[in-house]
Amino acid sequence: MPTLNDYHAKGSAASILRFSRDWNYVLCSNAGDNSVGIFRVDQNTGMLEKICILPVSGDYPKAADFFPDNRHIMALNHETNTMTIFRVNYEEKYFSLWGKPLKVETPNCVLISEIETT
Predict the structure, then answer these.
(1) What are the DSSP calls for the chain, one per residue?
(2) N or C: which terminus of the chain carries fewer CB neighbours within 10 A?
(3) How many of the other CB atoms lie within 10 Å of CB of 95?
(4) Backbone phi, psi, residue 44, to 5°
């Protein structure tokens, strides 16, 4: 399954693969193209269905991850020193910027965890 749309930049490379907490979705960041693709995982066959591949409002998304709610994703954009957060609409097959890009010096890796309180 390609991680880019046909019209996207040549010379791009997949940078990160992350599964959602429920294993129903996988995302892939595309460096060079500055996009993230989200795919649905068929639980019976393991095959992927493209939901969307869209730009991340930054350059060289070196890392990305799902939030625990599986309705938000974050991209770390290495060349623009930003972190961008998006709200995902699986039904309509798109994600949209949620807030302004945040400055982060030379972002490289992200892992989003849920902290349980007692």
Answers:
(1) --SS-TTSPTT-EEEEEEE-TTSSEEEEEEETTTEEEEEEE-TTT--EEEEEEEE-SSS-EEEEEE-TTSSEEEEEETTTTEEEEEEEETTTTEEEE-SPPEE-SS-------PPP--
(2) C
(3) 23
(4) -85, -40
Q: Give me the residue label for tokens 């020193």.
A: 81
| pLDDT tens track for 69-112 | 999 999 999 999 999 999 999 999 999 999 999 999 988 888 88
Amino acid identity, position 68: P
